[in-house]
Write a structure and sequence with these properties.
5 strands, 11% strand, 9 helices, 273 residues
Amino acid sequence: MQKEIYNLEKKSNQIRNQILEMIVSAGKGHIGGALSCTDIIVALFYGEILRYDPLRPDWSERDRFILSKGHSCTALYSVLADLGYFQKSELSKYGTNGCMLGGHPDSGIPGVEADTGSLGHGLGIAAGLALSAKMDKSDFITVVLLGDGESCEGSVWEAAMFAARHSLRNVVAIVDNNGQCATDLLENCIKHPLKDKWKAFGWDVTVINGHSFEELLAVFNDIHGRTSDRPLAVIANTVKGKGISYMEGKIDWHHRVPKDEEIEIAKAELKLS
């Protein structure tokens, strides 16, 4: 188990380095939120949780992963390229004219299940996929990663009601709970007791440290064999800008590009971590 954790931590560090390189090269990108959700995505794809095949992106029995907080796409792109969904050379073109890797996920990209960018829609798509699987008696699961700020969108809660009403235990919503919106702390924007709210909407809820692979795997390892009829919400407490000390918990780094000495400090910290 400890070796597995070490390998996942090492992979997360690699992905964070790639995120940094992409955003610095492009001169744009949402670095803070991409860093906060990296460990979650790494646990799902490298922790033997999701079923997928990079050589068959449209494999009918694959599990579906939807990045609803689409502005954190550099984390997902880095993972998909590393797994072989497309050439790693595409990452260096991120955000340039004519490149397939834009600032938000596009379903034309191998491994990307849905177009996301306008916040609040990923859970609705996930619920639809989950209902389709239930009706077809297919055993794939759908996992959707949302932002905590995104959870202010009313469409999230419409989808939450729908999923509970149809007893979609094959859908899992993970909230990247880093405590920040684009320009302020979440607590200053809305009173948002996430755990109580998801429970009130008929979901099973668990709260974990979103940077602890022990806790992530303990929850994720059970998502295929769930017996509850309720959908599952995982509130993953995270730190925006995780891995780079001067970014951690700083609202300025929602959408900002490091420069000069900042780049060197970030590279040094990620290399040492």
